[in-house]
Amino acid sequence: MQNRLSSVSISAMSENLDEKMVSYRVFLPEQLRTEFKVCCARDNTNMSEKTRELVEKYIQERQQKGG
Fold first, then answer.
1. The pTM is what?
2. CB pairs under 8 A, 24+ apart, for 11-17?
3. Where are the domains of the chain?
C-alpha cells in the first residue's frame, strides 16, 4: 500500500431534502480510496452514499450499546 494520501470531499446526504447538507474531507491512502471507489461502483452506489450509510450504521450501533 502506498503512503501517499488521497483527499476526498464527501457530502453528507439525507432522505429529508429540507435537512441542511454539509461536506467534509477524508484523507485516505490512494490505494484504499481506489478500492473503495471500485467497490461502490460494483454496488451501484457512490462513495458519498456508502460513507453516509456506514456512518449511520456506526451511530446506530453506538446508540444500541448505550454510547
1. 0.69
2. 11/48, 12/48, 12/52, 13/48, 13/49, 13/52
3. 28-63
